[in-house]
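Q: Please design a sequence for this.
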């Protein structure tokens, strides 16, 4: 599949810096915040945003990691046994403001599953959502509070976020499935 870089390393860095500022502004600082990154790429994104906040405010934000494998609503349809990763929530999230961090917001189903999983760990004061990319095509009434970039896309396209911590480089690429688009290669 042909791929096109739609966000460079510098653009990712700038987007995360902007998100960090927006989180601080909306929450009037970092007190009472807990970041929960969704496995896999939401975790390093949460760490990066927290690092920016530390630079600006000198304050540490607690960071957790959430695996939603068992909360997904598509498991029965695909007949696949999910690979469950570790969930690590460093503190009781009850009465805290949780910022859920993920790489791409698409249909909203993954975020719904993440909210269900979070509620099993306590009753947060609020859950806010930060995503690097919003590609549209929502199936549920879910929206992000903080968005690095809106990327309108077709369902025949795939967006891949590549991060240094997981993939060895920082970039976001758009993969176009030419056959799904009705184009013969």
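A: Design:
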């Amino acid at each position: 599949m042909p791929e096109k870089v739609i966000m460079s390393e510098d653009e990712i860095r700038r987007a995360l810096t902007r998100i960090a500022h927006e989180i601080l502004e909306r929450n009037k600082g970092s007190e009472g915040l807990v970041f929960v990154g969704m496995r896999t790429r939401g975790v390093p994104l949460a760490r990066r945003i927290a690092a920016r906040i530390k630079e600006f405010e000198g304050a540490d934000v607690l960071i957790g990691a959430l695996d939603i494998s068992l909360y997904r609503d598509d498991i029965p349809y695909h007949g696949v046994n999910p690979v469950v990763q570790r969930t690590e929530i460093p503190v009781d999230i009850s009465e805290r403001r949780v910022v859920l961090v993920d790489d791409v917001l698409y249909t909203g189903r993954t975020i719904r599953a993440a909210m269900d999983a979070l509620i099993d760990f306590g009753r947060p004061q609020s859950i806010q959502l930060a995503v690097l990319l919003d590609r549209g095509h929502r199936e549920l009434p879910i929206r992000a509070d903080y968005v690095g970039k809106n990327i309108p896309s077709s369902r025949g396209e795939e967006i891949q976020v590549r991060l240094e911590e997981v993939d060895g480089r920082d970039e976001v690429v758009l993969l176009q499935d030419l056959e799904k688009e009705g184009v013969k290669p």
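Q: Thanks. Anything notable?
A: The chain has one domain: 8-154. Residues 50 and 61 are 6 Å apart (CA to CA).
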